[in-house]
Amino acid sequence: MNIIDTHCDALLKLQLAKRSYENKEKLDYINAEELETNLERLKEGKVGVQFFAIFIHPDVPSDEKWQHALEQVDLFYTEVVGKANLKHIRNWREIDKLKEGEIGAVLTLEGADAFGNDLVKLRTLYRLGVLSIGMTWNNANLCADGAGEPRGGGLTMLGKEVVRLNNEHHVFTDVSHATVKGFWDILELSDYPIASHSNARAICNHRRNLYDDQIKAMFEKNGLIHVVFNPPFIKEGDGETTIDDLLKHIDHLCSLGGVKNIGFGSDFDGIATHVKDLEHAGKYQNLVKALLKRYSEEEVKGFAYRNFLNHRPGVAKK
Q1: Nearest CA to 263 among 273, 249, 276, 277?
Q2: How high is the pLDDT of residue 133?
Q3: Cα(290)–Cα(287) distance, rounded to whole angstroms?
């Protein structure tokens, strides 16, 4: 069963390897063992569309963030779309044009730090093919506070303008990493809200997960919630995290009316620990098999790819 995965951090790994003074040879996207979403693993796991996030660590000085973003975009074009021959999805309808065996690649932005308050840079990212924008990572920036910011503020005036521009360009606004207030600000303004990699806070009380009222509001607005495979977001406490633990989040989302709004956003290449038997993209079918034991094939196809296709900009009802 084909998969659409709405979040990975392979571009950051590729960039760090290229910039490393100790490792002179850059990672080979096709088969590098270090990459959980390399081409071979995407094929093995039957991933049909993989989203690739541009992520700039907050430690990067402000005057270098744009350069770091462009480096990751360049790696997307040269290594992912170029060398590995993934098909760059530049508008949502191009997913429908993928041929058998082809893998689509979607460029996203995790955190507005990359463009600061420069909307020319933002428009440049749209032109380069960015189709989903998360306003923050965990820290604050000029658009909003992130989930790790104690102040807990929402969108700034600039942030609200960015959401309006996302609507205009048929780009998702991603609520993952947003504060609670930021979430509600985005949901009020966004025509195309998505939680690209978030779980249910009722199951695991982590700041990166969503409360039930947030989840219900997302579903009421035809928003998508894609569950994340990062163990600290799946269950509390120590010990091994299993696929069954992850399924508790899917069960809960379904109980809140989300059977047609759920998807997967693995966070592969951005997490330090892993779910047992779901350590990289090549293991995706283990999750599919587990889901088929408790949901119908049509429902699982929805989780895997169909829900996303039905709710992408240009298809979803506002």
Answers
A1: 249
A2: 98
A3: 5
- Whether the per-residue pLDDT at 22 is higher than 90: the answer is no
The structure tokens listed for 50 are 């993989």
Q: Which residues contact 181 (CB under 8 A, 6 or more apart)?
A: 145, 152, 153, 154
CA–CA separation, 92 vs 94, rounded Å?
5
d(CA 62, CA 74): 20
| Angle subtended at Cα 66 by Cα 64 and Cα 69, rounded to the nearest 5 degrees | 110
In terms of phi and psi (left: phi > 0; alpha: psi -120 to 50; beta: otherwise), the region of 15 is alpha
User: Tell me: the pLDDT tens digits for 70-100?
Assistant: 999 999 999 999 999 999 999 999 999 999 9
Q: How many CB atoms lie within 10 A of CB 242?
A: 17
The closest of 278, 277, 253 to 268, measured between CA atoms, is 278
Q: What is the pLDDT of residue 256?
A: 98
Q: What is the chain's Cα-based Rg?
A: 18
Alpha-carbon span 82 to 222, nearest angstrom: 34
Q: What is the pTM assigned to this prediction?
A: 0.97
Distance of alpha carbon 104 from alpha carbon 106, whole angstroms: 7
The first and second tokens of residue 247, run together, are: 């399924």
Alpha carbon 177 to its chain's center: 11
Contact status, residue 252 vs residue 200, Cβ threshold 8 Å: yes
Query: Which residue segments constitute the domains of the chain, with CATH numbers given?
Result: 3-311 (3.20.20.140)
Q: How far is C-alpha 78 from the chain's CA centre? A: 21
Statement: residue 189 has pLDDT above 50: yes
